[in-house]
């Protein structure tokens, strides 16, 4: 078989096509919870939503405070903060120097004022609340945690799926719009997410108890999505007794 030699210009074009890293990346969103405070009946998490804005080496993070009811899993959210990191081409035309800038929100909440108002302690106190790990199962029946002392917690699969989908839907409604390189908004990227718990994993469980006659709060981290795809989620779920 006769092979046709590529001319230098054609070689360069072939190399560009063969290198996806040089192309514009897809829109990607990452959602992650971190424990922030603990009350007698609820926990508070910092919920950070990071949008790559469809660009390389760029991320815009919007942080919300979420109050999660320990018995029902119902949530209340407040927007707190927004910041963007990206190559600072003004200081370094090569793009090798990063810059960070805050993007103001119209009415950010004070997370510590909320803890004070709702009678909660900071997450650093968790070590004094007798945290204990149990045996966690995530299967077709749902999310279950059992402990050696007989305590058990369960969230049915359908309720877990609804909770995860409600997480993104609520954020899509609350997310304050901002300028992006394309016509999609953060709300567009979050809305309509169909999250199947069968594709998720469970880890980092902790049973929190105050040293008094109060109901314990069972937390489990649920992680879904693929970092190579357009969406990842790692959120703390309150699992009710049962």
Count of helical regions = 4
The end-to-end distance, rounded to whole angstroms, is 71 Å
The helix-and-strand class reads alpha+beta
Globally, the shape reads globular
Q: What is the count of β-strands?
A: 12
The biggest beta sheet reads: 9 strands, mixed
Low-pLDDT runs: 1-21
Please state the average pLDDT score. Answer: 86
Binned strand content: 35-45%
The figure for the number of domains is 1
What helical percentage do the residues reach?
Answer: 10-25%
Question: What does this protein structure show overall?
Answer:
- The protein is an alpha+beta fold and 242 residues long.
- It has one domain.
- It contains 4 helices and 12 strands, in the order αβββββαββββααβββ.
- It is globular and about 60 Å long.
- It starts with 7 loop residues before the first helix and ends with a strand.
Quick overview of this protein structure:
By secondary structure, the chain is α+β, with helices and mostly antiparallel strands.
List keywords for this structure.
nine-stranded mixed β-sheet, alpha+beta, globular, 242 residues, disordered N terminus
How are the SSEs ordered, and which strands pair?
Layout: H1 8-18, E1 29-38, E2 42-51, E3 59-69, E4 75-87, E5 98-102, H2 111-117, E6 121-122, E7 135-139, E8 142-146, E9 152-156, H3 157-174, H4 186-190, E10 201-208, E11 217-225, E12 231-239
Parallel strand pairs: 1-12
Antiparallel strand pairs: 1-2, 1-6, 2-3, 3-4, 4-5, 7-8, 8-9, 10-11, 11-12
């Amino acid at each position: 078989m006769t092979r046709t030699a590529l001319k230098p210009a054609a070689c360069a074009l072939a190399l560009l096509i063969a290198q996806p890293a040089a192309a514009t990346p897809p829109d990607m969103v990452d959602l992650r919870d971190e424990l922030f405070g603990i009350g007698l009946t609820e926990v508070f998490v910092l919920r950070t939503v990071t949008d790559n804005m469809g660009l390389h080496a760029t991320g815009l993070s919007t942080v919300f405070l979420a109050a999660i009811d320990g018995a029902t899993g119902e949530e209340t959210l407040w927007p707190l903060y927004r910041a963007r990191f990206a190559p600072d081409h003004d200081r370094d035309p090569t793009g090798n120097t990063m810059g960070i800038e805050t993007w103001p929100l119209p009415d950010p909440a004070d997370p510590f004022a909320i803890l004070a108002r709702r009678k909660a302690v900071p997450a650093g106190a968790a070590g004094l609340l007798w945290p204990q790990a149990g045996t966690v199962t995530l299967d077709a029946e749902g999310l279950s945690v059992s402990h050696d002392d007989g305590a058990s917690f369960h969230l049915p699969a359908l309720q877990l799926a609804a909770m995860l989908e409600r997480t993104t839907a609520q954020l899509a409604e609350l997310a304050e719009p901002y300028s992006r390189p394309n016509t999609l908004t953060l709300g567009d990227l979050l809305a309509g997410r169909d999250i199947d718990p069968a594709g998720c994993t469970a880890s980092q469980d902790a049973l929190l108890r105050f040293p008094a006659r109060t109901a314990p709060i069972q937390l489990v981290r649920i992680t879904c999505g693929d970092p190579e795809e357009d969406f990842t989620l790692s959120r703390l779920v309150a699992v009710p007794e049962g």
